[in-house]
TrEMBL record:
It comes from Miscanthus lutarioriparius. PPR repeats lie at residues 202-236, 401-435, 501-535, 602-636. Gene3D superfamilies: Tetratricopeptide repeat domain (1.25.40.10). GO terms for biological process: RNA modification. The keyword Transport does not apply. This is Pentatricopeptide repeat-containing protein. It holds the Pfam family PPR_2. Keywords: Repeat, Transit peptide.
Amino acid sequence: MPRRPAADRLAHLPAALAGFVRARAAGSASAWGRFSYGNALAACAAASAPLAFAEQLYCAAWKDGLSRDAYICSTVVDLLAKHGRLGDALRAFEDGDRGSAVCWNTAISGAARNGEHALGVEMFRDMVRGSSCEPNSFTYSGALSACAAGAELGVGRAVHGMVLRRDPEYDVFVGTSIVNMYVKCGQMGAAMSEFWRMPIRNVVSWTTAIAGFVQEEDPVSAMLLLTEMLRSGVAINKYTATSILLACSQMSMIREANQVHGMIMKTELYLDHVVKEALISTYANVGAVQLCEKVFQEVGTVSNRSIWSAFISGISRHSLQRSIQLLRRMLCQGLRPNDKCYASVFSSVDSSELGRLLHSLVIKDGFIHAVLVASALSTMYSRCKDLKDSYKVFEEMHERDEVSWTSMVAGFATHGHSVEAFQVLRNMIVEGFTPDDVSLSAILSACNVPECLLKGKEVHGHVLRAYGATTSINHCLISMYSKCKDVHTARRLFDATPCKDQIMLSSMISGYAMNGYSDEAISLFQLMLAAGFHIDRFLCSSIISICANMAKPFYGKLLHGYATKVGILSDLSVSSSLVKLYSKSGNLDDSRKVFDEIDVPDLVTWTAIVDGYGQHGSSQDALAMFDLMIRYGVKPDTVILVSVLSACGRNGLVEEGFRHFNSMRTVYGVEPVLHHYCCMVDLLGRSGRLVEAKNFIESMPVKPDSMVWSTLLAACRVHDDVVLGRFVENKIHEENCDSGCFATMSNIRANSGDWEGVMEIRKSVKDVKKEPGWSLLEE
C-alpha cells in the first residue's frame, strides 16, 4: 500500500504543530528552541490533540535538555493535569524549574483541579517556606481555591494574612478568591467584609457573593445584593442568573423570578441552554407550572437533553401522569433522559408496576449503577412496600453514598422491619459512613415497643459517643423512650437538654399522653403556653385527646376556640379529637356539629361519632351514621364494628346486631375477634335469650375466654337464671378470672337464697384482691 504524502499526514494537525514537525524534519535550527517546543505543546492543549503526541514532544524536549525550562514545564504540567494525569504532572514539575513561580502556580492549580486540595495547600506551604521565588497573584488565587475546595478555613485565613502583609493593594482576582474561600467555608460575615473592602468588583466578585448567600439559604440577602450589583452598573452573566434563580426557588418568590426572567430576556443569556434549564427548574419549584410549560414551549422543538430532563423533573413534582407523557415524547424524539430526570420521576412513582417499567428503561440507558438513580429506585420500591426489590437494588449498587444507606435504613424502619434496619445501620458504620440525623431518626422510629428498648439504648449510646449529650435528635430519643414505656428516662433526657424547643416539648407531652400520664402532660402543656410557644395541630390534637380521656371537656372547649382562632380546626387530627371529646362527655350536639364541618372524615372520626351515639343511648343514630359511612365508601375495621354491635346490644336490636355480625366476613372482609363475640353474647344476654347466648358461645370458632363467660354470667344475674349461672360458674373456674366474677357469682347465689354457696365462694376468694372502683370528676 503506497504511503500518503507528508502533506496529507500533517493536514489534520493544527498549523503550529504542522509547522513544528516540518521544521524538525527539515533540520531547521528554529525547531530546537524552547519557544518552538513551548508553542507546540500549547497548540496541543488548545487543539485537544492526542495526549500521546504531547508526551512525545515533551520527551523530545527532555532529550534536548529543555525539561527545566519554565515555559515548557508549566505547559506540560498544565496539559497533564487537565487530562487527569496528576502524578505524571507532578513528576514533570519535579524535573522543571522549581524557582519559577509559573511552574509552582501551574502545579498548585493542577492539584486543586484534580481534587487533591490538601496537596495543593501543602505545595503552597513548600513554595513559601522552601523556595526562592515569591508568590504572585496567580499563586494566591490557586492556593485560596484549594482552601475553598477543601474547606481549609485556617490555612485560608493564613493565606489571607500573607496577602495583606505582602501585597496590600492586591487585584480584583485575588480579592474574589478570598471572598470565594470564605463563602465555601461558610463564613459569610468574613466574606462580605472582604467583598465591601474591595475597591473594584467585577461580575465574578458579585456572583461569588450572591452564590454564597444562596448556599447559606438566605435568598433575601442574595436578592438585595443583586439589586446593588445592578445599581453599580455591572451586568449579570449566566452564573449570576442561575444563582439568583436558585434563590427564588428557596422562598417560592414567583414575582422576583418573573423579574429575573424579564432581565434575562433583554440580554443574550436567554439563548443559553443552562439559563433556560434554570428558568424551567425555578418555575417548577415555586409551583408555577404554566410558566414552566411556557418557557419550555419557547424553546421549541430543540433536541436538548438537559432542557427536556429539567422540564420532566419539574413537572414530576406536580403531575406524575404528565411527566410520563413527556418522557414518552422525549424518547420518541430519540433523546434519553439524564440521571437527575430519572431520579425525579422515581421520587413521584407510587406504583411498583410503573416503577418496574421505568426500571427497565434505566437498565437500558445504563444508569442502573449511577448512585443518584439507584438510590431513588430503591426508595421508590420501599415507598411501594416492596422491600425485597428495594434491598435487591441497594445490594447491586456498585457505589453507595450516605443518602443510599439512609434511605435503606428508613425503608426498613418505616415498614416495621427493625431487625433489618439495625443490620443495615451496622453495615453503614462498618463501611465508614457516619449516620446523620435522618438515619438516626429513622432507626429510632423503629424502636416503638418495649422489646426494642435495649436496641434504642444502643443507638442512644452511639449518639452520645458521636455527638455528645445535646443533639438535634434529642426529641427522637424522647419519643423512642416514650414508645418503649420508659417515660422516666425520657423525662431525664428532657430535663438534661438545656435549650428546649417546641418539637422537644411536644415530644415529651405526647410521651406522657401515650403512657397515661395525663396530669403531667397537662402540666407541661401549661408551662409551654406560659413560655409563649406556638401550639401546632399535632400538639393541639394530643391535648384534646387527653382531655377526652380525663373527662375534662372544659379544657377541650378552650382548645376548640384556640384551634378556630389560629385556623387549625380544619386539620383532621384536631377535628377528630374534638369529636371524640364531645362524644365521650355526652355532648352529642357539639360532637355532630364538629363532625359535619369535616370535609372528608377518616375511619377514626367515624368511629368516634358512632361510639359516642352508642355510648349515650342513641343507638339508632349510631347505626344511621355507620350506614352513612358505608355509603361514603369507608371500609370499617374491628374497632368500629365493636361500637356498632355494642350499640345494638344497648337497645336490644338483636336482629340488627346479627345482620352486622354476619356481614363482617362476607361484606366488610373483617374477621371477628373475641370482642365481637363478647358483644353478641351481651346482645343476647340483655334480651333475656340466655340459652341462645350459651349455644352461641359453644359454637364459637375460637376458645372463649373469661371475658366472654363473665358477660354471660352478668346476664344470668340480671335474669335470675341460677341453673345456667352454676354452669357458667364451673366454666369460669377453669379460667383465670378476676374478683368481679366472684362477686357476680356470690350475688347470684344470694338472690336464690343459697347462703351456703355464698359462704363457700367467699372462703375461696380470701387470697383474691378486689380492685377498688374509681371515678373521675372534672374540677
